[in-house]
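> example.struct
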């Protein structure tokens, strides 16, 4: 667009003038907008409201991300292992409880049979 486009009377066309002002304002705003680090503000508890990641920190962030992902996999593996161990212990406990209950039932029945026999002997 030509900023010096003239109307037949020799004046600058008003629509072109508005468009030129808009383009200038947009270019000026892009050039002069402060960076994120320049807009740094400290809030109530002393934390940053606007920050910018330094280029040297990106490698550290990638390494930290990989370590975190590895740890999450290990945690999930340990959770599954813990659940399996818990179920195995519960099954063993229930089996032991069932066995003791069966032994107690057998002992009580044997004792009752002995008492019935004793009672029969006393009656005869």
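> example.seq
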């Amino acid at each position: 667009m030509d900023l010096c486009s003239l109307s037949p009377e020799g004046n600058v066309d008003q629509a072109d003038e508005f468009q030129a002002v808009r383009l200038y304002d947009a270019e000026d705003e892009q050039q002069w907008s402060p960076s994120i680090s320049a807009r740094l503000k400290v809030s109530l508890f002393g934390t940053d409201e606007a920050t910018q990641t330094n280029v040297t920190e990106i490698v550290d962030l990638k390494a930290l991300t990989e370590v975190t992902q590895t740890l999450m996999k290990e945690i999930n593996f340990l959770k599954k292992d813990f659940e399996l161990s818990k179920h195995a212990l519960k099954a063993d406990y229930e089996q032991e409880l069932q066995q003791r209950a069966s032994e107690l039932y057998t002992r009580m029945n044997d004792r009752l049979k002995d008492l019935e026999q004793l009672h029969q002997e006393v009656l005869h």
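> remarks
The chain has two helices and no strands.
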